[in-house]
Amino acid sequence: MDSYLISIAGNIAAGKSTLTKALEHRSDGRIISFLERVDYVKQHGYLQKYYAAVSAYERIKGLKLDGNDPEAFLKIKSEAEYWGYKIQETYFLSRLLDLGVLSELLREGQSVAQDRSIYEDQVFTKNSNNNEYITDEAYRRYLDLFDQLLEDKRRPDLIIYLESDVETLKGRIVGRSRGEESDLAHPENTYLSNLNVLYRPWIMKSGLPYIIIDTEEIDFRTEDGLEEVVRNIVREVPGTSRLFS
Fold it and tell me: Cα dist. 239→2, 38, 107, 158, 212 in Å?
């Protein structure tokens, strides 16, 4: 029996976990939800340190040509570059381990809905390079590592990209009150906007089957909205129809 890997992609607070679990429920367990496991990142406060470092750099980046206190500037920049690469390296290795678990489930005939695939790391790493959180040299090293380690790995049968307005994302971040994310919701913080700019080009060039769900138009938390998502899935990957019958 064929098994399918459906990966849910989208910006922070787009609703990936919500849709992942909803697909499991809608399929009566024929699809199981697989939420990304980032315990190491959370236990060691990596995410909080990353957001703090890049936010500090964003606040002073425009002043870099003024020549005021160059040592302080370079220290903040160095901290952003350290955490910019550290967080992506840690997430990549964690998701690579997850991919091993996923591959075993798929080999056993179990279909899976996955909250954010390892392929989506490319969006965040590109954003970090664009905004000087990752150096060009480190970015090239990451791309080489990515290509080498994923060359023979199972690829998603479908990626569902949840597209959301930045103000909506910021509102959700405020609503779910995760301390490490709080600075992302600040009106002047452009982190989410920068990611949004990269998502469509990434998914359209990924070479993977995909659908785009406008979360402003389709509310998959409702029965009607979820059914529309399911119809889109089946239309793109007809074999999945048996999972929702």
Answer: 8, 31, 17, 12, 19
Residue-wise pLDDT tens digits, 153-210:
999 999 999 999 999 999 998 887 676 777 888 888 899 999 999 999 999 999 999 9
The count of C-alpha atoms lying within 13 angstroms of the C-alpha of 115, restricted to the half-sphere facing its C-beta, is 20
Helix (H, G, I), strand (E, B) or coil at 155: coil
Cα 221 to Cα 20, 216, 217: the distances in Å are: 11, 12, 12
C-alpha 17/C-alpha 36 separation (Å) is 9
Task: Say how many C-beta atoms besides its own lie within 10 A of residue 54's C-beta.
Answer: 26
Among 160, 202, 163, 215, smallest CA distance to 7 is for: 160
Q: Is 138 helix (H, G, I), strand (E, B) or coil?
A: helix
Q: Which two tokens stand for residue 105?
A: 């489930």
Whole-prediction pTM value? 0.90
Q: How many domains does the chain have?
A: 1
Domain that holds residue 112: 5-243
Quick check: helix, strand or coil at residue 158? strand
CATH of residue 125: 3.40.50.300
SS3 at position 239: helix
| pLDDT, mean of residues 55-84 | 81
